Amino acid sequence: MSIKSLKLRQISESIKSGTSFPLEKIGQRLIDLRKTLGMSQKQVALKLGITRQAVTKLEKNMESANLKTLEKYTAIFKCRLLLGIVSSEPLEEMIRKQARKTAERMLARTHANMALEKQAPGRKAYLEELDELTRELAQNPDSALWEED
Question: The domain at 3-76 falls in which architecture?
Fold first, then answer.
């Protein structure tokens, strides 16, 4: 099996399965598609109604692209552009962490005043209060949770 036919099979399988990849790799994916099919940048440019230089820019610098152009580009290859948003951590964990930070800020103010008056609770009571406030904030997250002081 030649390198070219192997590349064709790999790209074909990847596209058919809808394998996801990071946004910064989309330009290379477009190049791979075009080259695997044996199309020149000039041919793609004609189909898109843009210059060859614009195709080069599109393939090399995805920041210059808009979704409509990307959809048109992929349509040339009888493909669809699929977008996905993938979290690096569970949303519940993000909320819990933010709730903890917010609770710590809230309690820091309260406990600073209480310490001045020599009424600050002990460490154990503080941690219990912190856990309870964190749970309360995480149960009903709203925009206030994400406010920074």
Answer: Orthogonal Bundle (1.10)
CA distances from 110 to 20, 103, 144, 146 (A): 47, 11, 18, 19
Phi first, then psi, for residue 133 (nearest 5°) are -65, -40
What are the Cα distances from residue 4, in Å, to 13, 23, 31, 44, 109?
A: 14, 25, 14, 20, 66
The answer to whether residues 134 and 99 touch, using CB atoms and an 8 Å cutoff, is: yes
HSE value, Cβ hemisphere, 13 Å, CA-based, for 96 = 7
Domain boundaries, the chain: 3-76, 91-146
pLDDT digits (tens, 9 = 90+) for 53-103: 999 988 887 766 788 888 898 899 888 888 777 778 888 999 999 999 999
Q: Is the pTM of the predicted complex or chain greater than 0.90? A: no
In contact, 47 and 76? CB cutoff 8 Å: yes
Other beta carbons within 10 angstroms of residue 139's beta carbon come to 9
User: Could you identify the residue written with the tokens 């994916």?
Assistant: 29
